[in-house]
Amino acid sequence: MIIILDPNITEISEEYRTTLDHLSQMPGITMRVHKVQGAQQTLTEIYLIGDTKTLSAEDLHALPGVERVIRVSEEYRILGRHQDQQRTNGFEYNGIRFAQDTLNIFAGLCAVDTPEHVEQMLAALRDHGQTCTRMGAYKPRTNPYSFQGHGKDCLPYVFDLAGKYGIKVIAMEITHEDHLAEIHESLEQAGRPTGVMVQIGTRNTQNFELLKAVGRQQEFPVLFKRGFGITLNESLNAAEYLASEGNSRVVFCLRGVKTNMGDPHRNLVDFSQVPVIKRLTRMPVCVDPSHSVGSREHAPDGILDLMHAAAQGVVAGANMVLVDFHPEPAKALVDGPQALLLSELGWFLDDLALARECYEKRLALSRRRHGQH
């Protein structure tokens, strides 16, 4: 069960202490408290874990400071929607709002290679009014002899340049919990010129010890990529590991699933599941067309397959797009063949703006159909 306290109740309130004391004494029930940052206020959600079938929702609602009681019927206890449309979704980080009604573009380098390329990328983003990017420092690879990323050595200049060009959030994959400390230390030494959204890559989707470690930290929000060879339900349960440890600031990323049924694309594009995730959970949904399509091929219309896929995700309501760009794709150390050119950045952003406009018109049409305002 989930107990939501009145927004005016704080940890120093008498009602807060009285209610938590009462709940902590319930036999066979484990209690976890989560703070959920909404657009205008912070809510306290208390999760009761155990045999809650015999608990009376009416009795719990009568406790001091309780606003609502929700009986959980889905697997995703914290991230799930549970047929309650009033619950807050999304979060704000470093001045950027991430929710199921926003859209943020994270264009950047799949893997950092040189300071010059980082600066060229960030300058182009600034010139196009963008404040988010992706920058890979730690790169897990299928081949042990492939480039594994510069790691912590590149963090100082990446963070300095991000501050120089006004980048507020960098999506950055990690592969070990030690990377959290390295990122934190480098940010501190640089004077915190930017923010980082740590990324759990598809290969680590079921690395449960890493998920627990990332979930325990509250400093960085998390971009969680779907596992390329497991079901959507398994991936959503894996994302719940993050929230169960305390960090519910999670964005779920669709990046295609591995099957030859998707050929000639790199993966079978799964962006039709954007609305499914939004229905089942409160997480914002990201799409990664670069790793789904994996090439720069295009149809006779001249539009890249990658751009078609990205637009399909946005038309379906995606809240974030993660996409590879590179100043010189031929020199990229990772995934150069799928990277877009800096000269194509304006085209890509304009195309996504059209897709977003289409989604908003579809949303307005739906609301008229259902009598909403």
TrEMBL record:
<dbReference type="Pfam" id="PF00793">
    <property type="entry name" value="DAHP_synth_1"/>
</dbReference>
<feature type="domain" description="DAHP synthetase I/KDSA">
    <location>
        <begin position="100"/>
        <end position="346"/>
    </location>
</feature>
<dbReference type="InterPro" id="IPR052899">
    <property type="entry name" value="Class-I_DAHP_synthase"/>
</dbReference>
<feature type="domain" description="DAHP synthase ferredoxin-like">
    <location>
        <begin position="1"/>
        <end position="74"/>
    </location>
</feature>
<protein>
    <submittedName>
        <fullName>3-deoxy-7-phosphoheptulonate synthase</fullName>
    </submittedName>
</protein>
<dbReference type="InterPro" id="IPR013785">
    <property type="entry name" value="Aldolase_TIM"/>
</dbReference>
<keyword id="KW-0808">Transferase</keyword>
<dbReference type="Pfam" id="PF18152">
    <property type="entry name" value="DAHP_snth_FXD"/>
</dbReference>
<dbReference type="InterPro" id="IPR041071">
    <property type="entry name" value="DAHP_snth_FXD"/>
</dbReference>
<dbReference type="InterPro" id="IPR006218">
    <property type="entry name" value="DAHP1/KDSA"/>
</dbReference>
